[in-house]
């Protein structure tokens, strides 16, 4: 064995070993998350909106978050409440963004580039255009409350929240014409309560299928009262 070669490249071997151990740890964490998510889920509340989040999601200090949605800058701070999350344990490329407004008609009737957005679907399209999000043509669409998929969502089934319109789009997308991402974008709107929710999960394409299932579990638990 060439010991001089090994010793001469000791730092490289240590770095390689550390990366390998970190990869094993990440796989171990991900493997066990499915068994612990609901058991260890944390209740989170934004105003009247409540939902469960995984205990490994860490809130982002807004002043330090580089991922403000562009819509947040269009209206007075009182119009939207914005919360963001990332993963502190594995630190891979993922962000969760949650926006809530109780002034839905103010937003829908005064959205940039549109005289008036009359439906949640139209607002969804306008939002993606303004945020420079272009979904690939083959993404899965679950577009409204009539879709059987939404029967699993608390917002679609619990009284008095049954008037919520829901719209969701998930898949690969291009942001700002150059950045490839995996995005799960969910919106809910209630005319009676004037609630508008925008929940987004964004990650690199390779990480999209890792955190995505938990994001879906989160939005299924949303209630509003």
List the helices and strands and how they pair.
Blueprint: H1 3-8, H2 10-40, E1 42-46, E2 49-53, E3 57-59, E4 81-87, E5 94-101, H3 104-108, H4 120-130, E6 133-135, E7 140-142, H5 154-157, E8 165-175, E9 179-190, E10 195-203, H6 208-220, E11 223-224
Antiparallel strand pairs: 1-2, 2-11, 3-4, 4-5, 5-10, 6-8, 7-8, 8-9, 9-10
In a few lines, what is going on in this structure?
The chain has about 220 residues and is an alpha+beta fold. It has helices spanning about 5-10, 10-40, 105-110, 120-130, 155, 210-220; strands at about 40-45, 50-55, 55-60, 80-85, 95-100, 135, 140, 165-175, 180-190, 195-205, 225. Strand 4 and strand 5 form a beta hairpin.
Fold and architecture overview:
It is a single chain. By secondary structure, the chain is of the alpha+beta class. It folds into two domains: 1-39; 41-224, Protein Transport Mog1p, Chain A. The protein is 31% helix and 30% strand. The chain is built from six helices and eleven strands. Strands 3, 4, 5, 6, 7, 8, 9 and 10 form an eight-stranded antiparallel β-sheet that branches. The termini are far apart.
């Amino acid at each position: 064995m060439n010991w001089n070669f090994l010793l001469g490249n000791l730092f490289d071997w240590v770095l390689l070993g550390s990366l390998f151990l970190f990869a094993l740890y990440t796989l171990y964490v991900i493997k066990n998350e499915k068994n612990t998510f609901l058991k260890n889920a944390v209740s989170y509340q934004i105003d009247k909106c409540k939902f469960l989040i995984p205990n490994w999601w860490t809130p982002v200090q807004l002043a330090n978050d580089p991922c403000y949605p562009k819509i947040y800058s269009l209206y007075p701070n009182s119009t939207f409440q914005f919360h963001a999350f990332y993963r502190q344990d594995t630190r891979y490329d993922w962000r969760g963004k949650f926006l809530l407004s109780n002034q839905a008609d103010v937003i829908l009737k005064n959205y940039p580039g549109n005289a008036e957005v009359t439906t949640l679907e139209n607002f969804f399209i306008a939002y993606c255009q303004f945020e420079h999000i272009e979904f690939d043509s083959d993404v899965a669409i679950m577009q409204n409350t009539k879709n059987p998929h939404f029967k699993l969502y608390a917002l679609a089934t619990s009284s008095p929240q049954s008037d919520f319109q829901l719209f969701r789009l998930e898949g690969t997308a291009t942001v700002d014409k150059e950045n490839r991402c995996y995005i799960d974008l969910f919106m809910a709107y209630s005319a009676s309560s004037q609630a508008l929710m925008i929940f987004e999960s964004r990650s690199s394409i390779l990480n999209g299928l890792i955190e995505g299932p938990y994001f879906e579990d989160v939005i299924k638990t949303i209630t509003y009262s």
